[in-house]
């Protein structure tokens, strides 16, 4: 009887884990099929292997796997149209989602907030609308968030301040309104922050002066008011800085230490009149 019990236990250990793996694979397969159907897969430029037999998913064009788990989807420049389906949130092992330079419409599904292992999220250069989901604040491993050149509206969620591993945050060329959240001052690993060409108002948060790893900061072409915070004197490794096309007043003494200063001039400002501006460029 003891031997029978041991045999049964071994069978359970073998069978049940295999069932778990099968279920997870099924959920990922269904999510991939939903993405294909929702984004007009039959008209993609490249779609080799898609909708193949069960077990072939890791060979589909743009899909990468590790240990039979989908870890990356790279479908940029592939003529995706339609919307990103909510099932994308079931791909919980994703570390990279690359859907940039397509023609995606609709909103960013809040279910993307389920992808807690993701490091790279590139949805830029599409036609996405709606607001930035606050659920993105759950992606605490995220290092690169690029949502630029869409038609996103609403304010920048303060929840993005929880993404303390971010190295690059690009929200430029949208229709974002409201003020720059002070919570962004918590992103101390950030090296690149671009919020230009939106409709942001209010003053520049002094907390951005805590981002001592910033190399490029572009807040140009908004409706920002006030002056450059004195805390910016701590941004000692800035290589690029642009605040042109705002309603700022005062001088630039707090960033005068920044290296690679190549131009100081005046510009007709969106508020009327001519105000000083400073622009620094990368080498």
Q: In summary, what is this structure?
A:
This protein has 283 residues and is α/β, with parallel strands linked by helices. The protein contains one helix and 16 strands.
Protein traits:
283 residues; alpha/beta; Leucine-rich repeat, LRR (right-handed beta-alpha superhelix); 3-stranded parallel sheet; elongated; disordered C terminus
Secondary structure: elements and pairs:
Blueprint: H1 2-38, E1 63-66, E2 69-74, E3 81-82, E4 96-98, E5 103-104, E6 120-122, E7 144-146, E8 168-170, E9 192-194, E10 201-203, E11 216-218, E12 223-226, E13 240-242, E14 247-248, E15 261-268, E16 274-280
Parallel strand pairs: 2-4, 3-5, 4-6, 6-7, 7-8, 8-9, 9-11, 10-12, 11-13, 12-14
Antiparallel strand pairs: 1-2, 13-16, 15-16
Shape estimate? elongated
CATH topology of the domain at 1-128: Leucine-rich repeat, LRR (right-handed beta-alpha superhelix)
Q: Under the CATH scheme, which architecture of the domain at 1-128 would be assigned?
A: Alpha-Beta Horseshoe
Number of helices: 1
Order of helices and strands: HEEEEEEEEEEEEEEEE
Radius of gyration: 23 Å
The spatial strand order of the largest sheet comes to 1-2-4-6-7-8-9-11-13-16-15
State the helicity in percent bands: 10-25%
Largest sheet features: 11 strands, mixed
**What is the β-strand count?**
16
By helix and strand content, what is the structural category? alpha/beta
Mean pLDDT score: 85
Distance between the termini: 77 Å
- Uncertain ranges: 1-24, 260-270, 272-283
**What is the subunit organization of this protein?**
single chain
Looking at CATH, the homologous superfamily of the domain at 1-128 is: Ribonuclease Inhibitor
% residues in beta strands: 15-25%
Write down the CATH class of the domain at 1-128. Answer: Alpha Beta
């Amino acid at each position: 009887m003891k031997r029978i019990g041991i045999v049964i236990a071994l069978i359970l250990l073998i069978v049940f884990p295999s069932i778990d793996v099968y279920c997870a694979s099924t959920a990922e397969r269904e999510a991939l099929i939903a993405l294909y159907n929702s984004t007009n897969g039959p008209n993609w430029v490249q779609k080799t292997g898609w909708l193949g037999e069960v077990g072939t998913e890791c060979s589909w064009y743009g899909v990468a796997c590790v240990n039979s788990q989908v870890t990356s989807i790279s479908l940029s420049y592939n003529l995706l149209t339609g919307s990103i389906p909510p099932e994308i949130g079931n791909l919980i092992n994703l570390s990279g989602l690359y859907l940039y330079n397509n023609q995606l419409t609709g909103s960013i599904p809040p279910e993307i907030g389920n992808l807690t292992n993701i490091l790279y999220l590139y949805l830029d250069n599409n036609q996405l609308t709606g607001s930035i989901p606050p659920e993105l604040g759950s992606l605490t491993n995220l290092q690169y968030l690029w949502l630029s050149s869409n038609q996103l509206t609403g304010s920048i969620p303060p929840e993005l301040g929880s993404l303390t591993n971010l190295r690059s945050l690009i929200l430029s060329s949208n229709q974002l309104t409201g003020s720059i959240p002070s919570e962004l001052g918590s992103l101390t690993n950030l090296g690149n922050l671009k919020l230009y060409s939106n409709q942001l108002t209010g003053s520049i948060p002094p907390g951005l002066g805590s981002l001592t790893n910033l190399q490029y900061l572009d807040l140009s072409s908004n409706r920002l008011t006030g002056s450059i915070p004195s805390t910016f004197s701590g941004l000692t490794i800035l290589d690029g800085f642009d605040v042109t096309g705002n309603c700022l007043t005062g001088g630039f003494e707090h960033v005068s230490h920044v290296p690679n200063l190549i131009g100081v001039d005046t510009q007709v400002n969106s508020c009327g009149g001519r105000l000083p501006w400073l622009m620094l460029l990368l080498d």
